[in-house]
Amino acid sequence: MDKVAIVILNWNGAKMLAEYLPTVLNYSRDEATVYVADNASTDDSLQLLSSRFAECKTIALERNWGFAEGYNRALRQIEAEYYLLLNSDIEVTHHWLTPLVEFMDAHPEVAACQPKLLSIYNKDMFEYAGASGGYLDRYGYPFCRGRLFDTIEEDNGQYDYATEIDWATGAALMVRSKDYWESGGLDGRFFAHNEEIDFCWRLRIRGRKIFCLPESYVYHVGGGTLPKSNPMKTFLNFRNNLTMLYKCLPEQELRHVMRMRWLLDYVAAWETLVLKGNWGDFKAICRARRAFSRWKHDFDEDRRLIQQTRHTENAGDRCPFALLWQYYAKGRRRFSDLPSSPR
C-alpha cells in the first residue's frame, strides 16, 4: 500500500500534463506514487503519458465521468493511506509535500488539508480556486482567506499560519483514504463544481477537521476546463451549491436558508442580465433553480443519513454573517476585514 498517492484527473489535458506533470514527478516521487486517471480523453494524453512519463501510473477510465465520479472510480483502484487529489494545471514546489504529510501524521483528528494556492500568472497573488483555505457564509456562499468573490488579494504572508477551515480546494486536496470512503467520497451526481465543498462539509459534520497549511504552497493556472463566464459552469455552481445546502444544513436552518437563497439567486440572475447583459448566465441560473427543484428529493436519503452522522448540534456550521452584505453593503473586500474570525 502506498503512503501517499497523488492522483491527477485528466480530460483532454495533454498540454497541461506536458507542462506541469514534470514538477510533480521531480518534487514528489521520493515521497509519493503519482497516478494519472484519464477520463476517456480524445486528445493524445495517453500517448503522452506512455512516451514521456512512463514512471507515472495510469488509470484509463472508460468514459468522462466528470471530476467527482472520475475521482471516485479512480481511487477505488488505489490503495494508500493518503490520497492527494491534484489538478493537472498545478505547478508544485520543492518540499511541498512534506509539511502536508507530517501534519496529517501528527494530527489524527484532521481528515483533510490543502496547501496555499498562488496564481501561476502572478506568483505574488492568491489563486481564486482555494487561496489560503475556504469558508462558507450562512447562506452557503464560498470564500477564502485571500479571496472574497472576485476580489483576490496579494500574498504578503498575512495568512501564513496553519488554520482550521471549512473546506479545502479540490485543486490540491490531501485526505485520509479512511475518511474519504467513510464519508461517501465525492458526490458523483455533482459532475463538477462545489463537490469538494460538499465533501468537506460532510467530513466536518462527522466531527472531522480540515486545515490549510501555507508552509506548503503551489501555483495554479485555474479555469483550465471551463472559462470563468461559461454558462455551464454557472449552472453547475448554482445547482450543486443548492443541493449541498439541502443535504447538509441542520434541520432548524433549512427552511430559512433555502428561502433566502431563492430570493438571492433570482436577484443575482436579474443583476446578471440587466447590469451585465449576460443572457447566457441569466438562463443558467434560472435553469439551475429548476434543476435543483426537480432533483432535490433524490437526495432525501442522503440528507437523512448525513444528519444522523452529525457529531454535535453545531458541527459543520458556517460563518455567522452574510457575505453579500459584508462585501457589497459594508465594502469589506479582504478576508481580514470581515467582522469576526470565521474560526
The gist of it:
The chain has 343 residues and is of the alpha/beta class.
What does this structure look like?
The protein has 343 residues and is an alpha/beta fold. The chain is built from eleven helices and 13 strands. It has helices at residues 14-28, 45-52, 66-75, 97-106, 177-182, 195-205, 231-248, 251-274, 279-295, 300-308, 323-329; strands spanning 2-10, 33-38, 57-60, 80-86, 90-91, 110-119, 134-136, 142-144, 147-148, 151-152, 163-164, 172-176, 209-220. The strands form three sheets. Strands 1, 2, 3, 4, 5, 6, 11, 12 and 13 form a nine-stranded mixed beta sheet that branches. A hairpin with a 2-residue loop joins strand 9 (147-148) and strand 10. Helix 6 runs parallel beside helix 7 (231-248) and helix 8 packs antiparallel against helix 9. The longest helix has 24 residues, at 251-274. It is globular. The two termini are 35 Å apart. The relative contact order is 0.13. The model has no long low-confidence stretch (mean pLDDT 94).
